[in-house]
Amino acid sequence: MNEERIVFPGRLAIQQRVLPRYRAPFFEALAQACAGGLSVFAGQPLPDEQIAPVETLDHARLFPARNRHYFNPGSPFYQCWQEGIVVWLERWQPDALIVEANPRYPNTRRAVSWMHAHKKPVLGWGLGAPRLNGLLGGLRSGTRRRFLSMLDGMIAYSQRGALEYQALGFDKERVFVAPNAAAAKPAHPNPVRPETFGERPVVLFVGRLQRRKRLDLLLQACASLPRAQQPRLQIVGEGPAQAELQALAGRVYPEAEFPGAKYGEELECYFRDADLFVLPGTGGLAVQQAMAFGLPVIVAQGDGTQEDLVRPENGWRIPADDPAALQTALREALADPGQLRRMGAESYRIVAQEVNLEAMVGAFVRALNHITGSSLPGG
Q1: Which residues contact 350 (CB under 8 A, 6 or more apart)?
Q2: Domain boundaries, position 258
């Protein structure tokens, strides 16, 4: 039976500070679910952010913002002035606007005011609203609350994020969850793996090699395992920390392999040959891809986006920067291949049925139809 396809009947606009390439499939799919089309307003990152931005879109329109950055995005003082946002809205004339739920982009307020002056709704989209501590924490919390109060609804990446927005005063009927997805439903069946490991279990990491990925902890955790349990560790990717990691591996875990960046069918072979996927630090777009190949996963807890994806039935969520927790999870995972296969099957089910691009697009469309009062199916 084919699933009913829902659409947003109007013209949609989405503001982004930067549009990274990994988001392109989502915006392309969302554009095809908007009867009036989709226009995305986004600018360029700072050079040291190492974000590869989208240059063109096939189904959506990309309107270039002129980003003026002040300080670094990691600083509490950071601001990004996006010039041209009102010109964009005047040209596109959207029926609804979705903005990043981030008060550090001052011109977003002008966009919200423009939409409300034209009696059109604005939704925010964000990770959530965790407590802000440290320098200027109280001031920033007040600024965030005032900015969010301007919005007509919120789309959160996770259930945790939705609860945080509700705690700030949003009615639960105006808060929607669109689990963060980077890939479509798997088009292939779940790979069949034997109930036992081969000569050695295969542990896989895929991603950019950066210090924040904490691959140093993964190397040390593998080295700490009993010799009979030590896995074949494959670290797939490239990045600024590659030489440093290879030097560390030479000292603590010479068995680690660094095959470089892989793509397409060549990358799929690594997923199919693995027994376990591990993300010891932040980031992690490859987690969903690993799950689509029936892999159980170990991930470090971060902003809450992994909570709806990684559960006790298919993996381990461990505290960030906790070597002992990573070692314990690895030891438990590699002790029982039968359990690992069952967890991998659950990973596949989650991305096939619950967390995928199709589900994310559907959640956005339902949020839009609810806020705009559409009577279309699913609205």
Answers
A1: 291, 309, 311, 314
A2: 202-353
